[in-house]
Write a structure and sequence with these properties.
heterodimer, A: mainly alpha, 9 helices, 76% helix, B: 181 residues, mainly alpha, 10 helices, 0% strand, rod-shaped
Chain lengths: 182, 181
């Protein structure tokens, strides 16, 4: 992996920007995709949001000051793009975002790109019942194995607040699964 | 010291705590129960989400995204278009200037269009920038204008015309569709 500072330097140099950007996509495409996918649920939507995220990164990289880590900055863009996308979709469907999420999860069984079993389907239903921020914190901590201080930099929230969010999220999901399975 | 006394001393946790040198974050023990409770709850949650992607989805992403950021070059195309205007202006200036020079230097009775073009071809290199500029009242900054586009420039123009569809070209040229239809 190219050292981050060197990569940023190459990304900010017109001559090396395109090649460096290819390296950047290769490095982060899967991590960002799965982060986005867990928020927007559908593969097609995740693909759109991922591409928009990278386009924003490409256009904004010249103004990136390295005050934060590159991946934190990119995760923040990906998170904002995903939430903006969902809000727009909810508005178009004339429903609120939590109702939209429930509808999207209900359609998972018919989704070609969901190969989960019943317990994984229930897990997605459980996650959809959480407040939006708890969903994101849960996904980043549980599936991406991110540390609290890393999540803190992405979501601009205190580590204490994140711990509390994660604790509540896990307990609610546990209870939801218990009631569905029992 | 007797053996049992020695063991007792070793098992005395207060001594171990004081002498080990290890420390824990402030408030660590306040959250042990919560952490244990989370660990237990996590065991009832599946490890994976069940989402999948098309087989070769990630293989094509770089090309797909780079193709989308390529229209950034459109900005350059606009500046290229500006260059076209410059070149057109210069060509027009040259034409007028050379016509004026011909008018005054070639005897009228010998003037015809074929000879005029032949004369321009033969003498074009002998005109200095000052000769041309002399024909105009306003000073012309020739250094700012590339008189003859390089072959590289021609290739860029051709690429621009090939890559952009007709409607984009019309839109950029400020000609309305009504004028064309």
């Amino acid at each position: 992996m190219v050292e981050e500072a060197i990569l940023v330097e190459q990304l900010q140099d017109t001559k090396t920007k395109e090649q460096a950007f290819r390296v950047l996509i290769t490095e982060y495409k899967e991590r960002l995709y799965w982060h986005i996918r867990r928020i927007v649920i559908s593969h097609d939507d995740a693909d759109d949001v991922l591409q928009n995220t990278f386009i924003k990164v490409f256009r904004g990289i010249d103004n990136f000051k390295q005050d934060s880590k590159l991946y934190s900055w990119m995760y923040r863009i990906a998170t904002n793009e995903s939430i903006t996308f969902l809000n727009k979709k909810a508005k178009e469907s004339n429903v609120d975002i939590s109702e939209l999420k429930q509808q999207m999860v209900s359609g998972l069984y018919a989704d070609n790109w969901f190969s989960g079993d019943e317990i994984q389907f229930i897990l997605q239903q459980a996650i959809a019942t959480l407040p939006e921020k708890q969903q994101i914190v849960f996904n980043m901590k549980y599936f991406d194995n991110m540390k609290y201080d890393e999540i803190s930099k992405v979501l601009d929230t205190s580590v204490g607040g994140l711990k509390a969010s994660y604790f509540h999220a896990v307990k609610k999901i546990e209870n939801y699964i218990k009631t569905k399975v029992d | 010291m007797k053996e049992h006394q020695k063991n007792k001393s070793l098992l005395d946790t207060s001594n171990i705590h004081k002498e080990s040198g290890f420390e824990v974050p402030k408030g660590y023990f306040d959250h042990v129960e919560d952490q244990f409770s989370i660990n237990l709850a996590e065991e009832s949650i599946p490890d994976t989400s069940g989402f999948s992607t098309p087989d070769d989805y990630f293989d094509q992403l770089e090309d797909c995204i780079l193709a989308k950021v390529a229209p950034e070059k459109k900005v350059k195309v606009i500046s290229l278009q500006n260059k076209l205007y410059k070149w057109s202006s210069v060509a027009a200036i040259l034409l007028v200037t050379l016509s004026a020079i011909l008018y005054y230097t070639i005897p009228r009775e010998e003037f015809n269009s074929e000879e005029a073009f032949a004369w321009i071809d033969n003498n074009l290199e002998s005109f200095s920038e000052n000769d041309i500029a002399y024909q105009f009242d306003e000073a012309i900054e020739f250094e700012e204008v590339e008189l003859f586009p390089s072959s590289d420039g021609n290739i860029q123009i051709e690429n621009f015309l090939d890559e952009n569809d007709t409607y984009i070209l019309i839109e950029n040229s400020n000609i309305s569709l009504d004028q064309i239809n």
